[in-house]
């Protein structure tokens, strides 16, 4: 009962703050307002978390809204850019590998901890894999939370400012209203998320929903639309989950690593932004779309940003999905190749 009341208080505070940010026309108002409110609770070490079923459902709904944007033409166009998606994923990994030695030295941590802390993969996955190679799980978790927080806090704001200087095309599928057609969309999203979790996909409930709804949508099987109000609720829940990562006790436990990690993360962000600008010379997409495609932020947050900016949400989701799969699948192998001899004996399962 106490936990339920606490969550209700946090959620209502997050929704109110999100509404205020949205009315003030701040970038990603619902998400960022909710994240700030939840982060304020977490900063005082109040336990903040979205119940598992509710969090999974919100990700499935978001994934379903993205999947609706996948027409046969969009699917065919995305398939042609798979080599670039792979290149972007490996570029993020190489940038992390290049910055890891300096972070290890300045932050007073092992090279393996620095490497897995900077990789643009899932927080849990990088902590699990890194721990098998002798890395510090606590440091990895803190720096990955900082990575997502920095990207979500800075990139959308920068792109919203830049949007005034470039055209912002409409999203392929605009959200609609509360109709009966919404039910099969949500049901397909939940089924896809569940199948994705069984398959072990990164961001499974989001990515699984994107894949299944995208397949059905490409054959014209799902005419429904996700209403704006539901997407706002999804943003609030994603924001609460984001803010929950910033507990004071966690951040205070590794101050040196955190202070050294922030400049390293910013450097990688700038590198990926430069690569996205270079890619724009050959790809027929706006800089905003490509910056989100190449970004090292979380998949849910980048998808929401692309929807808010009216960019190519399906392409952004595809880039982020490929990055997640590639990083999670190859992180251990890459570390075996580049690790110094002094850390070779620290692998327990390598």
Short recap of the structure:
This protein is mostly helical.
Describe it:
This protein has 350 residues and is mostly helical. It has one domain (54-226, 254-346). The chain is built from 16 helices and no strands. Helix 1 (2-23) crosses helix 2 (29-43) and helix 9 (182-199) packs across helix 10 (204-218). The longest helix is centred in the N-terminal third of the chain and has 26 residues, at 82-107. It is globular, with a radius of gyration of 20 Å. It starts with a helix and ends in a 12-residue tail after the last helix. Mean pLDDT is 83; it is low at 167-174.
Describe the secondary structure blueprint for this structure:
Layout: H1 2-23, H2 29-43, H3 52-67, H4 72-79, H5 82-107, H6 111-118, H7 123-132, H8 137-162, H9 182-199, H10 204-218, H11 228-243, H12 248-252, H13 255-279, H14 287-294, H15 299-309, H16 313-338
Helix pairs in contact: 1-2, 1-11, 2-11, 3-9, 3-10, 3-11, 5-6, 5-13, 5-16, 6-7, 6-8, 7-8, 8-13, 8-15, 9-10, 13-14, 14-15, 14-16, 15-16
Distance N to C terminus? 44 Å
- Overall, the morphology is globular
Q: How would you spell out the order of helices and strands?
A: HHHHHHHHHHHHHHHH
Poorly predicted tracts of residues: 167-174
Q: Figure out the total of helices.
A: 16
Number of domains: 1
Number of strands: 0
Average pLDDT reading: 83
Main sheet record: none
Secondary structure category:
mainly alpha
Instruction: Compute the CA-based radius of gyration.
Output: 20 Å
Percentage of β-strand residues: under 5%
Helix content: over 70%
